[in-house]
Structure to design on (314 residues):
């Protein structure tokens, strides 16, 4: 059997909008994130191995991803791995995909799907924390969904922050690098994206304006977080699934342990946000900031991988 190998070019050809549409179609079609198989974590010498299975009636798949924290210092990607896509009824392999490229497309698409339902058509001020592949991917995904008037890039490395700001300017967006750690920039933001490897909060959540949307994607462990308790306690919290968020997301589990947040405070999962089910009132009526926590789930990889496979068919 000659198994098709779908690389970065094939995955990028789907584009951010194609990936967002694939995720929305899966949820609108009845996929329940709460019943999706959990992620499995295995500690290995180079870091962590993540095994992420998922299935529908049509397709089944599994991503094996490596998270190697020391790789960037070696000028190697932090995220590695492959995705095996199979026909669900027969379990015969359909394709093997580049796992890192799939993650680079999928994660921003999940955030962009939430942004599609949480923000208006114009983002006046986007504050983007991070300068790695996810920061670039999230910028592309947001620009595919919204008109962005101004971007402030905040990163630990000023040269990488300036490179990302220059990239945004080439895309036609007014962009600059934030001053200092950039934490005060969030006071004038209507969209904040946290795409870092930080294990501690990036900014004072009390500064975020009511009505602004904050998306955090950088952590998926109970002891790490990019946003503080002040933000979580005053926000309308949306998650991919309650079960995944309350087992992996330190952004929520730490405030939960502090008694400042409860599981009942989650106003919606992503399926409820997309379909409007089980949400009292419209998302535009949420009080305070809106906070979307993105930990990454196997069903998302499957939806996007299947769309890449269809898109690449002759």
């Amino acid at each position: 059997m000659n198994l098709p190998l779908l690389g970065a070019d094939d995955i990028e050809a789907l584009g951010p909008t194609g990936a967002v549409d694939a995720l929305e179609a899966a949820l609108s079609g009845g996929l329940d994130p709460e019943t999706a198989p959990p992620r499995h974590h295995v500690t290995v010498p180079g870091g962590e191995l993540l095994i992420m299975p998922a299935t529908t009636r049509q397709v089944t798949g599994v991503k094996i991803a490596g998270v190697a924290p020391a790789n960037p210092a070696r000028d190697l990607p932090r995220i590695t791995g492959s995705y095996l896509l199979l026909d669900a009824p027969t379990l015969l392999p359909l394709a093997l995909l580049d796992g890192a490229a799939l993650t680079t497309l999928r994660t921003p698409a999940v955030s962009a799907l939430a942004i599609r339902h949480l923000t208006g058509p114009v983002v006046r001020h986007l504050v983007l924390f991070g300068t790695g592949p996810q920061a670039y991917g999230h910028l592309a995904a947001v620009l595919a969904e919204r008109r962005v008037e101004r971007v402030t890039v905040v990163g630990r490395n000023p040269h990488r922050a300036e490179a990302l700001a220059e990239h945004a300017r080439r895309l036609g967006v007014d962009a600059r690098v934030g001053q200092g750690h950039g934490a005060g920039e969030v006071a004038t933001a209507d969209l904040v994206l946290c795409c870092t490897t930080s294990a501690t909060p990036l900014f004072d959540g009390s500064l975020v304006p009511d009505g602004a949307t904050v998306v955090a994607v950088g952590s998926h462990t109970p002891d790490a977080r990019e946003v503080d308790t002040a933000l979580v306690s005053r926000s309308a919290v949306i998650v991919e699934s309650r079960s995944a968020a309350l087992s992996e997301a330190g952004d929520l589990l730490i405030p939960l342990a502090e008694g400042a947040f409860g599981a009942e405070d989650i106003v919606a999962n992503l399926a409820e946000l997309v379909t409007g089910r089980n949400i009292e009132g419209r998302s535009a009526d949420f009080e305070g900031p809106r906070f979307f926590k993105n930990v990454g789930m196997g069903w998302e990889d499957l939806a996007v991988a299947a769309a890449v496979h269809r898109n690449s068919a002759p």
